[in-house]
Amino acid sequence: MRRLALIPGSRWLVLATFVVYAALTLVLSCASSRDSVPVQSWWKSRGPVVPHEKFPADCSLCHEGKGWTAIRADFVFDHAKETGVALEGAHAQAECLRCHNDRGPVGMFAARGCSGCHEDPHRTQMGPDCKTCHDERTWRPGELIATHARTRFPLVGAHAVAACWQCHPGAQTGNFARVDTSCEACHQQDLARATNPDHAAQGWTNDCQRCHIPIQWGGASFTHSAFPLTGAHTGALCADCHGMPPVYNGTPNQCVDCHLSDYNQAASPNHVTFNFSTDCAQCHSTSTWDGAQFLHVGISNGCVTCHQPEYDATTSPDHGTYNISTNCEQCHGTSTWFGATFNHVGITNNCVSCHLPDYQGSANPDHTLYGFPQTCEQCHSTANWTVTNFPHTGISSGCSNCHMPDYQATSSPNHAAASFGTTCEQCHTSTSNWLQDNWPHPDFPINSGKHSGFDCADCHLQPTNYSSFSCTHCHEHRQSSMNNEHQGVNGYSWSSPACYQCHPDGQE
User: Fold this and answer.
1) How far is CA 191 from CA 157, 182, 186, in A?
2) How many CB atoms lie within 10 A of CB 376?
3) Most buried of 38, 210, 373, 502, CB within 10 angstroms?
4) Which residues fall within 8 angstroms of residue 315, CB to CB, at 6 or more apart?
């Protein structure tokens, strides 16, 4: 002992490493030898076999004459028939001596269930019923998402692809002890990176679920109680109203405080010229700036007094050419200028007498090419010329018989290149409007901002397989760049489905 004590610390480390390596090598070699033993063979390390008192006296039924450890090649034992217990999955390949040995009657261990043979690596924390997660085919657990849904923390969104050990530090060794399920317990790094707005400075350090959801970390839905965010305001950035660095106290909350430039630039009608109120909410909504519901309180019915330019510029129909009355209210309402209900009093049903240019100029469909009748009222109403109700009576469902030019000319998407079928009615379900289609496309919200106006082929690189899409061919072509950028991001992987999992709206 004294001589060993003189060995320097570094040599002790080398010696200890060698001992551990040798022990590990021995264990692995033993395990390798044990796992390679055939089902009906015997390995001496198992110890003595079970007593044969109840076996037939004719040893040759099972053994060969070469030795007691050699089993006949044609020996077959129907375990289910002879014992009433069927061996399934991995148990069918296990050595007989794994269960039948000198430890004791096999029935005693079988009565204990899985724990009769298998040590519980979970330290009884997962309960005694191993079949909840495991089966006899493989020890690897299955249906973990469904199993976890029965706990106090169902795995939803990005949590469903997180590795077990990211929340359960002892998962690699089977330790799934209860953990803190609060968001901040795992997302401290995300909290530290949140600077727009600065969460720590505002005291937003817990209850992340008030604004965030597991589907995506960005685009938080903050409860904006002082000024409810509706319509177009829901997509605004905090800095749009609060500035950068943000100031959250004393922010103006009247429409004109942010939209004065819109008020000054409004030309149809000119808000400044007509001295419109700066209370924008009287006419406009947060859903859209256009299509305002103008309140005509205190304004006479002489619409043309203000709207003479609109009257003169109207071409469908040309009000001046057809000498349409300047009493605008006869056809137009005060809520919207378009969609007028034309008063046809004293005008015959012979629409084409006025609308022959419209008939001849129609292109979708071409009325002249297809020989449509000139009795316009069969399809068109007097309320709206563009909304039709074409009577397809007597015409078969083979739309392509008439619409093959439309099929061949379509470019967004290119029907011919994508090998779309010519059964138009699968997608174009309306016979009154060709553009109102029902394309069986999944709910895919990446269609705004930088992604708006994209052709299908921009994301669907295989023109005949629209179930496949790619993000990575546009967003950084080098995987290493993205790996560096996403360091510490939970659930990150270099794949297009993973990109969409975290960025379903195309935003960072």
Assistant:
1) 19, 13, 10
2) 22
3) 502
4) none
